[in-house]
Amino acid sequence: MIEVLPESQGKVMGIKASGKVTAQDYEEVLIPRLEAVLKEHGTVCFLYLIDEDFQGFELGAMWDDAKAGLKHRQAFEKVALVGAARWMEVGMKLFAPLMKGELKNFPREQLAAAWEWLKS
Asked: What is the pTM of this model?
């Protein structure tokens, strides 16, 4: 499941992934909200919080994530990945050269610091 976090405001957008993330989560929640932010602001500072009960991505969700990331790769000013497993951090580092903006990993206990970094 993906939910938009209430701290999201202006061009700063945060989501939380919990349980099993599906393609439907991307298509009905994440992508429409991301595109609305980009339409209004042109760029986005994005926080991706991995909840403690995160169980992974369905294949369709991984495909939607890759498509959205590549389509909008020049629009991400900053991306904060919070509470991710090591394999996700490695994947993010591999994707970083394709993006214009900064990417940074934070442990879950530094969620407030991740929000502050995005807003700075």
From this structure: 0.89
